[in-house]
Amino acid sequence: MDWKSIFGLPSLPKPSYIKAYEQTLLKKTSKAKPIRELDFLVLDTETTGLDVRKDYVLSYGSVLVSNNRMKISESKEYYMRPKKRSKEAVKVHGLIQVRPYVSREQLIRSFLEDASNKILVGHHLGFDLAMLEKLGKTLGLRKIKQPSLDTYELAVRLENGKYHDPHTIAAQDYSLDKLCERYKIALDDRHTAAGDALLTSQLLLKLLKVAERKGIKTFGDLMA
């Protein structure tokens, strides 16, 4: 509900970078496009907790994957001044007295510019996107709508088949830690946004190789 319109208050104009992002959503990727020609933005957020309604973003990290290669030189890492701290979050992330901080607008603008015309990737990606949508809501960002790929779901599909029974899956066997161990990826810089984005990028490339062996070769195959 738009409370501003109800009370006769003018809405703030939507920033140009959000308008530009929304324009990119009009362009659809061909289902026949080979996976090797796709661009992925692999991302992660570290937060004060796991409740989207109450918790806040502490940091954001992303890695571009293009032509089946990680573009480390184009990776991003941002820290935000937390509205609150929790002992649990500090224990996990160790984010104390980090400088410099960026504004909410700087983070959202950079994310949207990088995300345009990319497939978004993350491990349990839905949570990260919900936190970014919350962060950008008052700036005029309504929804992050482009194609997305969850490495948790992709790994489950590749190892158990497309029509597996989700009730038979042990979720703990598909944590980022367990998958990195299974696919022989060194667990460096775990529990930082940039570190987890890098690990997830490596996992994505491993999973895409498995997918290719299973006959999944196009955008349409991958997103089916």
Overview of the molecule:
- The protein is α/β, with parallel strands linked by helices and 224 residues long.
- It has helices spanning 3-6, 16-24, 87-93, 104-115, 125-136, 151-160, 176-182, 193-213, 219-223; strands at 39-47, 57-66, 69-79, 119-122, 148-150.
- A 5-stranded mixed beta sheet has the order 3-2-1-4-5, with helices on both faces.
- Helix 2 packs parallel to helix 4 (104-115).
- The chain starts with a helix and ends with a helix.
Summarize the structure.
By secondary structure, this protein is α/β, with parallel strands linked by helices.
- The outline comes out as globular
Strand content: 15-25%
> What is the averaged pLDDT score?
90
Structural classification: alpha/beta
Q: Could you give the count of β-strands? A: 5
Q: What ranges have pLDDT less than 50 throughout 5 or more consecutive residues?
A: none
Helical fraction equals 25-40%
SSE inventory with pairings:
Elements: H1 3-6, H2 16-24, E1 39-47, E2 57-66, E3 69-79, H3 87-93, H4 104-115, E4 119-122, H5 125-136, E5 148-150, H6 151-160, H7 176-182, H8 193-213, H9 219-223
Parallel strand pairs: 1-4, 4-5
Antiparallel strand pairs: 1-2, 2-3
Helix pairs in contact: 2-4, 6-8
